[in-house]
Structures are given as structure tokens and as C-alpha cells.
Amino acid sequence: MNKIAIVGAGPGSADLLTLRALNRLQNAEVLIWTDSLISPEIAELTSKTCEKFATSSLTLEEILALLISKAQQGKRVVRLHDGDPCLYGAISEQIYALAEEGIDVEIIPGISAYQATASELKKELTIPGIVQTIVLSRSGGRTGIPEAEKLENLAKIGASLCLYLSARHVEDVQKTLLTYYPKDTPVAIGYRVTWKDQWLKIVPLNQMAAASRDKGLFRTTLYIISPALKSHDKRSKLYSDEHKHLFRKK
């Protein structure tokens, strides 16, 4: 059976690729990549003989036609997605259509923007006694959101809330969040995190929209709303001398 590698490119920097992702890129005979969201330096990791097809102007049907055609020719095909393909990657419809043609896929994960943002800030998003849950979501926008997952319901939890694809609606997002989070809750705003033109800033929740407007943000932007972004002296019990576990007796 023919197989296509759906590869996560990570947040932007080429040195954040996994070893498996790098291997598939270096051995690819055909690269079909999301050029509007992925750094060109990652696409350049392929061989000089690799055929490259940018997809920013293509429809799903056109992309699928390319994938199917090249796979049926016996080519080693890589479908390169930004971030992690299993998160807002629109891969389920691709997998389904390829399966109908007898083409299998392998999925290679990539580092997501929320992970890269927390790392760049040198912050942990799960602090004992403060917050232990991370929620990944987005504002409704044109494609909508299931009723149970509306921002109001997610905000009630008070978790570390990571919002993708929401910069166009940031005023509405801020207004909703202020109902559930204190106005001084830190918000990390990350634009093209780990790219050469990265912009990253922490602002109070009540300045979230203004900071976004001032920077002119409308795409490739992530928001992390979390009390964990404040300075804390809380510590985990894991390394406490009072904590017994399998490898250390109390």
C-alpha cells in the first residue's frame, strides 16, 4: 500500500523539527507544503531533486489530487503542515479521502505554538495549587464552535487557556474573558513564535485587545491566558523530601 507522510513542521524554527520529521523531509521525492505558514528554510531541507508544490492558493480538492497522483506514482510524498498537524491541521478529511484511494498515511507530530510560546517565556503552564489544566481552543469566527465549547464555558474553568485563530476577534474575546478572569490576569501574545521576526509580549487581560491592535495582529497569533504566567514560589510535591513514591522512600 502507498503511504504519505503528514509531517508537523513545528512553530517555525527549523531546529525544532523532530528527528523523524527531518528524516522524512530529507528523503522526500515530493513535498506538498503549507507555504503561507511554514518557514522556507524548512522546505529547503529536502533534496535538490525533490518536487515542491506550495498549497497556499490551492483548494482541498487540488491538494488531494496532487497527493493521490504522486503517491500512485510510487513517490515518497511528504505533506508538510505547520505546528502539529493533529491540532487545527484539517488532516481528517485528507486521511479519509486518501484511504478511499487505498493510500495510507503516517502522522509525525510537531511542536505546537503554545509549547513554543511557553518555552520562549520560560514559563510552566501548570503550577501546583494555581492551575493544573491547559485548554486549547479558538474563538468562533466564521466556522463557528460547538455550543458546549463556547468561550464562556471554557473560561469558567480558569485554566491556562490557549487560543488559536482568534486575533481577528480579539475585542470580543477580551470582553468575554473579563467576565471570568481578573482584569490583571497575564496574557501572553505570541506572533510567529520562533520565527526570525517573532514578537512576544505579556500584558494584563484588559490590555489584550489594545496590544493586538497596536501591533496590527490578525493571523499567526496565539494567546495564552493564565494565572501561571505570574511569578510564583509554589513547588511540586514530586521532589519534596516529604513525598514518597516508587523510587524514593519517605
Description:
The protein has about 250 residues and is α/β, with parallel strands linked by helices. It folds into two domains: about 5-110, Cobalt-precorrin-4 Transmethylase, domain 1, CATH 3.40.1010; about 115-230, Tetrapyrrole methylase, C-terminal domain (Methyltransferase, Cobalt-precorrin-4 Transmethylase, Domain 2), CATH 3.30.950.10. It has eight helices and ten strands. It has helices spanning about 20-25, 40-45, 60-70, 90-100, 115-120, 150-155, 170-175, 210-215; strands spanning about 5-10, 30-35, 50-55, 75-80, 105-110, 135-140, 160-165, 185-190, 200-205, 220-225. The strands form two sheets. A five-stranded parallel β-sheet has the order 3-2-4-1-5, with helices on both faces. Strands 6-7-10-8-9 form a five-stranded mixed β-sheet, sandwiched between helices. A hairpin with a 7-residue loop joins strand 8 (about 185-190) and strand 9 (about 200-205). Helix 7 (about 170-175) runs antiparallel to helix 8. The protein starts with a strand and ends in a 25-residue tail after the last strand. The mean pLDDT is about 95. InterPro entries: 4pyrrol_Mease, 4pyrrol_Methylase_sf, 4pyrrole_Mease_sub1, 4pyrrole_Mease_sub2, Cbl_synth_CobM/CibF, Siro_Cobalamin_biosynth, Uropor_MeTrfase_CS. Pfam families: TP_methylase.
